[in-house]
Structure formats: structure tokens, C-alpha cells
Amino acid sequence: MWGHIAFVVIVYFVALFPQSSSTIAAVDDAQARAKADSRTSKVHQQLEQLLWMQGTWQRTQGGDVLEESWSAPEADCMIGTFRWIKGGKLWMTELMTITIDDGVLVFRLRHFDRKQTPWEDKNSALTYPLKSIGDREVVFEDPEKDKPRRFRFSSPKKDVYEVQLIPPEGAESRPTHFRFQRKKD
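-> C-alpha cells emitted (185 positions)
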């Protein structure tokens, strides 16, 4: 009789809580998703902070024309292009992205000559994770790189856009600074 009662109690609990282990797993999954969503929302907010970069920016130096354009933040990325015209001819271009990778903003770029031959190794782009972000300023850095170690993008005032390529501290080379104006259509 006790065997029958134990069987009934077990059947009762299985019927009452048929998915207890899967329910616990679902709760764990929901908690993991909530934690990932909070990280994702923070990094998406960081990407949205870069809206000030959107547009086309231009500068002349000597007879050269330099132009950089950025798309608006969308989904998990921004796309940028750069062209440098020397002596009335295309000298070089860059393709740039700012993406969310593993919960972190990452800046990547590839340089190309006028025939679209990459300057860097054909299998990789230059990659710089986010170092800091503030009001109208973002810094990406790879501590392993020497030239440049860091990219700093900023907008000190309306319709002005600046890019600094910063070598490691103590390096012989000095930072390279480009100041652009918003291109008017």
C-alpha cells in the first residue's frame, strides 16, 4: 500500500510540476537575456551618441581635398567612407565601420589605393575597440598598435569635425590632426 501511495504522490507532483527543470532553465535564460539586453541597450545608446558624426565633412590642404562621410547609426553599426584627392585625382580611400561586437563598440578601417588595392593585409582590417565616449567625442584604441595607437573623433563646435591619429606616448611621431567642416549641399 505504501508503494502505491508513493507512486500516486510522485505522479501527482509530476503532473503538478511537469516542467520544473525546464521552468528553471527558462528563468535562467530570461535572466541571462535581461543581463545581455541591459549591456546591449547601453552599447546601443553609446552608438546613438555618435549621431553627431553623421554627414559629409570636407577640408582642403594645399590643393588636396579630403572628404569623410558617416551614415547615421542604424541597427548595430555606422558606415564611413573617406577619400583623398591629390592633384585632381583620387589618391586613396578608406572604408570604415563602427559596429557593436560582443557588447563593445569597435572601429575598423581599411585603406585602398585608387585601384582599390588594400594597403593592409587582405584578410584583416585595422581594429580599435572603444576606449572612451563622451559628449561629441569618441576614442578608439588598440594598445598593441603603434601607428596609430588611438583614433579620436570629436566635434568641438557645430559643423566642425576633428580626427586625431595618436601614436603611443613617448613615440617619435606626433599626433596627426585633421579638422573638417560640414559639407554644404
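The chain has one domain: 49-182.
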